[in-house]
Amino acid sequence: IKDWKTRLSYFLQNSSNSAKMKGKKGGKQHTYFRPSPEEAQLWSEAFDELLASKYGLAAFRAFLKSEYCEENIEFWLACEDFKKTKSPQKLSSKAKKIYSDFIEKEAPKEINIDFQTKNMIAQNIQEATHSCFSAAQKRVYSLMENNSYPRFLESEFYQELCKKPPITRVAQAT
């Protein structure tokens, strides 16, 4: 758990650290504000609420990484991006990339789907359409929603996000 907390600590930057980051000039900056306990609690209402929140998605992704199953969210996100692709050439190259990264046997981030779905995808990517990964994406979504999501909601990290921060003496004096 300590290693997991260390990995997630960068998500918990307080607003003073974020304000310092905004003042610096340079490349693209990624700043994360700790969500309010109310926002974090919304994530428990529906899996889609968690995925719709940038911070929620980042926290869930880090949680999956700690459980050595981040390939599921990476595949789901790749499919979401794939469905937004307009160009037929890009559609074909992205389909092949997703297939080689997540679907084929011994893929570096191989997801856990049945043999029939893998075969159907292998046939469909020859002439890629926006729906060629739909069955696999639904399977992975369901796996995350029914297995990983409940464990995330029970995790110490999530429980900490839902707690109201203690009132400090400085705040009490004002």
Attribute tags:
174 residues; Regulator of G-protein signaling 2; signal transduction inhibitor; Regulator of G-protein Signalling 4, domain 2; 0% strand; 65% helix; GTPase activation; membrane; mainly alpha; RGS_subdomain_2
Structure description:
- With 174 residues, the chain is mainly alpha-helical.
- It has a single domain, classed as Regulator of G-protein Signalling 4, domain 2 (Orthogonal Bundle), CATH 1.10.167.
- Helix content is 65%, strand content 0%.
- The chain is built from 11 helices and no strands.
- Helix 6 packs antiparallel against helix 7 and helix 6 crosses helix 9.
What is the CATH class? Mainly Alpha
What would you say the CATH architecture is? Answer: Orthogonal Bundle
Instruction: Give me the number of helical elements.
Output: 11
Note the overall shape: elongated
Query: CATH topology, anyone?
Result: Regulator of G-protein Signalling 4, domain 2
**Proportion of beta-strand residues:** under 5%
Instruction: Give the mean pLDDT.
Output: 83
The major sheet is characterized as: none
Series of H and E elements: HHHHHHHHHHH
Number of strands: 0
Subcellular location: Cell membrane; Cytoplasm; Nucleus, Nucleolus
GO molecular function, one term: GTPase activator activity
Protein name: Regulator of G-protein signaling 2
Main location: membrane
